[in-house]
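Record format v2
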Amino acid sequence: MLAHVDVNSAYVSFERVFNPKLEGVPCVVLSNNDGMVVASSSEAKALGLDLGKPWFELRPRAAALGLEALSSNYELYGDMSRRVMEVLARYGPELQIYSIDEAFLEISPRITKDLTALGRDIKDALRRLVGVPVCVGIAPTRTLAKLANRTAKQVAVFDGVCVWPATRPEWRDKLMGALPVSEVWGIASRLERRLASLGIRTIADLVAADPVLIRKSFNVVVMRTALELRGVRCIEAEEDRTGKKEQLIVSRSFSEKITTVDGCARSSQSTPSRPRPAS
Amino acid sequence: MQRVIVRRVQPAAPLLLLAAVDAVPAGFPSPAQDYYDGPIDLTDMLIDDQAATFIVRAAGDSMLGAGISSGDEILVDRSKTPRDGDVVVAILDGELTLKRLSLTAAGVTLHSENPAYPDIHVSALSDLQVWGVATYSLHHLRR
């Protein structure tokens, strides 16, 4: 069994540990030089403020929305991340740190404890020791553990901990029949369109599809994902997906909306380029 | 109100204090050498749980009686269960504040170690958010 653990709205949650006033308040964390939103709290997401919103557009509305904006502090996030991982490592010798705010933990078969109790233990320990809220998904494969975590986060009755095999089979079938295939770890939107052309639209469709046909029509990676959804473990820690960046963005934005050629020319002139390293 | 600024423990390199060692003897080996026990690791000595321990810097004079001056660094361990008499970082009105915790039959009190500041009474411990328990104060003797 594997547990997938991730910190809810990680950057905002890290900031909130040291500034309890921000609890329950819509918060966004801005990119370097306060260009755009790189992270938002659930309250901010509910206002439609998500990744990529330019700060100059938000700033005039911030006070009216009761929005708190924070400059990013990656040193802090790195330190808090290390603490989270250190606590997780206490629950087993095999921890795969997947990103700054998520990890897969191998649950030894020797652990006879009820898995829901174990998940709750992990969640409570991180809240108490480090001060951050997390969700835990436990399942036999990485892909299902991610799905269980998503469920833990979005379905209130789970209260942040979902043990996939402990849920009722009919309920799981219903959920997978309702969720689009893009909710699966590793299925990007472009792939979603191609899968749709084969009539695969929901997670249940992908589970039911013939794995060999999937491999022929796509590739072995998609086939493995389909098998993992059936509970067959075929994605291991060594297959480091983190190295394969989906996107890297280096961007510059103007500090306000520019509508004239003249204004654009003036702004570009005064925008310094990236400083050259000292030689 | 005693406010605190939270700093983090730098975990990378342990703080090392070299225990006194004799100069390299030219003739006769030091009889103390056999007793040398290695350097003192302050991280090991002062911190039980590295993941849960934070350094906060005290600001203000409300804890002078506890030997905490403005600017002193306080080690705060979130893994410890608060007990009567502990100095704690509590959350009051959304701010982190250092106070002496008093747990008696009469109730829960946050006490400043300075008569200029009034006690704060809370009906139950569950109504109080304790952020962490202070374990050591790094009081600056030389400013």
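Residues 115-130 of chain A form the longest helix (16 residues).
The mean pLDDT of chain A is 89.
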